[in-house]
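ingest -> validate -> predict -> emit
validate: passed (alphabet ok, no gaps, 126 aa)
predict: started
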Amino acid sequence: QLQLVESGGGLVQSGGSLRLSCVASGFTLERYNIGWFRQAPGKEREGVSWISFKGARTNYADSVKGRFTVSRDNAKNTLYLQMNSLKPEDTGAYYCAAQTFVDATPWYDKKMYAYWGQGTQVTVSS
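emit:
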């Protein structure tokens, strides 16, 4: 069964750090570009970061540039998102997703992703 499982979320004070992990099973992670998305209560799910299948290319939402770093360890079938200098507006459920369709749309278009994890909650207090 194809599965993505996120972990590492929790409650942290503003300015703190967290590292999220995403482990794939049932398929080889290196075959896919992977995106990180987040969704705050009452808001649409939005793209946070993206990494190519070999890890050579990355993208970030403007709101997290300079604070978040995406990486992957294909030998461990694992994706990471290092989050530093966290702000209350970073609060939300974070999801990893495998890109399964490629067209002219931007990397953060969630319609290109067919496999999603269950999400891990990140809460940043003020």
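The chain has a mean pLDDT of 94.
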